[in-house]
Amino acid sequence: MRQAFPGLCLLVFAHLVQLTSAIVVLKPFAREFSDLPAKFAIAVNSSGICGALLISDPLDACSSLRNGLGPNETDKTRFALIVRGECAFKDKVQNAQNAGFHGAIVYDDRDKGKLVYMMIESVNITIHAVFVSKASGEVLKEHALGEEGECCIFPFQNETAWTVLAISFISFLVILGILIIAIFAPRHWLYSQGRNQLPKSVDTKIVEALPCFTFSSSGLGECHSEDTCAICLENYKDEEILKVLPCQHVVVSVSSSCKAVDSVVSKEGPGCTVSEWKK
Asked: Is-annotated flag, keyword Transmembrane (predicted)?
């Protein structure tokens, strides 16, 4: 399931980026007109689609078209050329679809206007819809003959390449993220487990094996420089057996009267036992 999730994300992303620009071509002049597709309308496939170009009647297509396809023309591909304005894009495309057209080419009604995406609800829309500039629309309107195959809509291959690049980049990021998690997550888990499994106290055998010597007040300074127990603060007695810790601190023997020696010497931690005790 976890392995399938990245693939599902990429599939959804690929579906979302299918919306690309297209090229409208008027064959008699071999002239191309850049356009933008309608969002949520049917996308143009890689092979494109060709058909006859008819000027819609009325031109704004805000009401039912009077020049729709007849009963014997349902097998022919027709595009409706529509001017922008007076009503929503959705109404224009819906009326063209109801009249039997396979696509709607809407051109701008303003000079030097920027191409925009036509926002169309996906409900009941089954035809192609694109938006072109006013200049392109006027050329198409002037030379539209209504002949079969005279007008074609092709996907814009350059933007398709960007789509492939975007999908490849997202795929790389997903794979990189999975690899990072796969490499560092187990290491972190093993490190935390190792810390939890460290011994909580020093083995009593290790404590018993610590080096010992007999205290002598006359020999003070040869083996040690202190004459007081750092734990219980009692003075050492002559002939008393003292233990030497690895940190070179000296404490009284476990067999002495200092009752805190056992717990302090064998307490948890690799640091200086006496120094920790003094804190």
From this structure: yes
Q: What values do phi and psi take at 259, rounded to 5? A: -80, -15
Instruction: Work out the burial of residue 55: count CB atoms within 10 Å of its CB; fewer than 13 is exposed, 13-18 middle, 19 or more buried.
Output: middle
Identify the band that residue 47 occupies on the pLDDT scale cut at 50, 70 and 90.
confident
The count of other CB atoms within 10 Å of the CB of residue 18 is: 11
Q: What is the pTM of this model?
A: 0.47
Rounded mean pLDDT of 150-172?
74
DSSP 26-40: EGGGTEEEEEEEEET
What's residue 12's pLDDT? 37
Q: Report residue 240 as tokens.
A: 């008393």
Specify the DSSP class assigned to residue 128.
Answer: E
What is the number of other CB atoms lying within 10 angstroms of the CB of residue 102? 20
Give the 3-state secondary structure of residue 242: strand
User: Residue 131 in contact with residue 106, Cβ under 8 Å?
Assistant: yes
Domain spans of the chain?
A: 21-155, 204-278
Predicted pLDDT at 21: 55
Residue found under tokens 């008819």 = 54
DSSP 151: E
* 21-155 CATH fold: Glucose Oxidase; domain 1 (3.50.30)
CATH level 3 topology of 204-278: Herpes Virus-1 (3.30.40)
- Among 17, 5, 18, smallest CA distance to 175 is for 5
Helix and strand counts by DSSP (H, E) for the chain: 7, 11
Judged by DSSP in three states, 251 sits in strand
